[in-house]
DNA sequence: GGTGGTAATTGAACGTGTTCAACTGGGCAG
DNA sequence: CTGCCCAGTTGAACACGTTCAATTACCACC
C-alpha cells in the first residue's frame, strides 16, 4: 500500500474502488472478476494490486469509507437521544440504514473470524475501525442516566460492539420482508438489556453479576 | 455423489478422506492442494470430485464422521449426570475433547454463515447433523429436574445448540494455554444460565421472560 | 463368452485471484 | 539538456480449485 496522502495516486485508488463497487453491485461479489474491475477502471489486470492487497480488501476499503460517511448520522442520534436504549438503537439503526443499499456486498467480509486474518473484525488491521465503533458506544453509555454495576460497566461498550456485530450478521442474512426479524431482535434484546441493567441493584441478582464480572475480567483482562 | 451403501466405492471415498486429513494435518487446510491429496490417495487429480463436492466438503465429511464417533461419549455424559448444568457441560466438553486433535482443521468450516451455502451450519444440507445435536440438548433438558418457564422451554434446546456453536467458534481461535479461556467462558456462562432459570419464578423477572418469549416466537416460529 | 451399460477414473483444460519481472513516464539534481 | 530514480503500470505467467469429455473397469444378463 502507498504511504500517506499523495492525492495523485489516491485518485486512481478511488477510481478502482468505484469501478469495483459498480461491478460488485451489477454481478455480485463472487461473480465479479478482477479483470473486469481493472478493465472498468481502465487499467491493466494486475494494477489494482498496487492499491489493494486483495479482492476482499476492496470491500474493506468500502467499509472504511462508509464508516466515515456514517459518522454524522451517529452524532445526530447521540445528540437527539438521552436514554441508553434510544442511543444504542440510534447508533445501530443508523449503521444498518447506511449499509442497506450494499447489504449483499458485506457478506464478502463475513468469512473471516480468525483474528489472525487481516480482514477479520477482530484483527490488528481493523483495530482502528473497531475502536471508533467502541468509542461511540462508550459515549452512548457514559451520558445516559442509568447507573450500572461497577464490575460490568467498563466492559459494556465492548459488549455492545460485539452485540452490534452479531446483529449485523443476523441482518445480513435476514430474508424476512424489510428485515423485520432483525428489527424485532434489536427491539426486544435492547429492552431486555435495559431491564437487566435496571434490576442490577436487586440482591437476588448479585450472584449473576459476580459471575458476569469474573467472566469479563478473564476475557477482556483487568480494567 | 453415489447413492446408498455400496461398500465398494465407500472404501475409496474413505481412502480419499484419510489422505486428505493426513495432508491437511501435515500442511494445513489452505496449503494442502487437491493434487497432493489425490496423489496421496493414489488417484488422478479430478477423481476426488466424484466423491466430494469440494475441498471444503471433505472437512464436512470429517465432521460427520466425528459426529458418530462422538456419540458414545455423549451417551455416557448423559447417563452419568442429572443436573442440567452437568449434562450440558458433559455434551460440550465431550465434543471439544473429541475435536481437539483436529482443532485447526475445523477453521475451514467457519467461513460460511450464509444459510444458503451448503456448508453453513444453518443450511438445509447440514440439517441432519444439526438436528442430532439439538436432540442431545433436548434430552439434556428433558430429564433434568429443573422446571422451566413455559414460554421459553420449547426453544431451550435450539438455544443451547446456538450457544454451543458460539462456544466452539470461540474455542477454535482461543490461543490461551490449553484453551483455558474457553473453559472459563463455558463454566461461568453455564452457571449464569442455571441461576437465570432458577430465578424464573420471581415476579420481578416476569417482564424479561415475556420479552424473551416473544422474541423466540418471532425468530423460531410458534411452537 | 460375448455384450451392454453403469460406475469409476483419467488428465487436460478452464477460469480464477494473485505475483512479478519488465517497462513507462515524469520530475529533479547536476 | 542529460541522466537517474522511483512511483505507477503492464500483461504474461503461476498455482490453485474445479469441470468435463473421453476412457477404462466391472458386472449382470443373455
Structure, explained:
Two copies of one chain form a homodimer. By secondary structure, chain A is an all-alpha fold. The first copy, chain A, has ten helices and no strands. The first copy, chain A, has helices spanning 7-27, 34-40, 48-51, 55-80, 84-99, 103-106, 127-142, 156-172, 180-198, 206-220. In chain A, helix 4 packs antiparallel against helix 5 (84-99). The longest helix of chain A has 26 residues, at 55-80. The radius of gyration of chain A is 20 Å and the shape is elongated. The two termini of chain A are 35 Å apart. The model of chain A is unreliable at 1-5 (pLDDT under 50). The interface between A and B is medium-sized, with 32 and 32 residues. Chain A binds a DNA duplex (30 and 30 nucleotides) through helix 1.
- Structural class designation of chain A: mainly alpha
| Percentage of β-strand residues of chain A | under 5%
Query: Main beta sheet of chain A, described?
Result: none
Mean pLDDT of chain A: 92
Shape of chain A: elongated
> Compute the gyration radius of chain A: what is it?
20 Å
Low-confidence stretches of chain A: 1-5
Topology:
The structure is a homodimer of 223-residue chains.
Chain A: H1 7-27, H2 34-40, H3 48-51, H4 55-80, H5 84-99, H6 103-106, H7 127-142, H8 156-172, H9 180-198, H10 206-220
Helix pairs in contact in A: 1-2, 4-5, 4-7, 5-7, 5-9, 7-8
Chain A binds a DNA duplex (30 and 30 nucleotides) through residues 2, 6, 8-9, 12, 33-35, 43-47, 49-50, 54-55.
Amino acid at each position: 500500500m502507498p504511504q500517506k496522502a499523495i492525492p495523485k495516486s489516491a485518485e486512481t485508488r478511488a477510481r478502482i474502488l468505484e469501478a469495483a463497487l459498480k461491478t460488485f453491485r451489477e454481478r455480485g461479489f463472487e461473480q465479479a472478476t478482477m479483470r473486469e474491475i481493472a478493465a472498468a477502471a481502465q487499467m491493466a489486470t494486475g494494477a489494482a494490486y498496487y492499491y489493494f492487497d486483495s479482492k476482499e480488501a476492496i470491500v474493506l476499503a468500502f467499509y472504511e469509507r462508509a464508516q466515515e460517511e456514517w459518522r454524522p448520522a451517529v452524532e445526530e442520534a447521540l445528540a437527539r437521544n438521552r436514554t441508553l436504549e434510544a442511543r444504542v438503537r440510534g447508533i445501530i439503526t443508523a449503521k444498518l440504514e447506511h449499509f442497506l443499499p450494499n447489504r449483499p456486498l458485506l457478506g464478502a467480509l463475513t468469512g473471516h473470524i480468525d483474528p489472525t486474518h487481516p480482514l477479520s473484525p477482530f484483527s490488528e488491521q481493523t483495530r482502528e475501525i473497531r475502536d471508533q465503533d467502541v468509542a461511540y458506544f462508550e459515549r452512548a453509555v457514559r451520558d445516559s442516566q442509568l447507573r450500572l454495576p461497577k464490575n460490568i460497566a467498563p466492559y459494556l461498550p465492548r459488549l455492545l460492539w460485539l452485540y452490534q456485530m452479531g446483529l449485523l450478521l443476523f441482518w445480513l442474512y435476514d430474508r424476512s420482508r424489510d428485515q423485520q426479524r432483525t428489527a424485532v431482535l434489536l427491539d426486544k434484546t435492547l429492552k431486555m438489556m435495559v431491564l437487566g441493567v435496571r434490576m442490577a441493584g436487586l440482591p437476588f441478582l448479585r450472584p449473576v453479576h459476580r459471575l458476569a464480572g469474573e467472566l469479563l475480567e478473564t476475557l477482556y483482562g483487568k480494567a
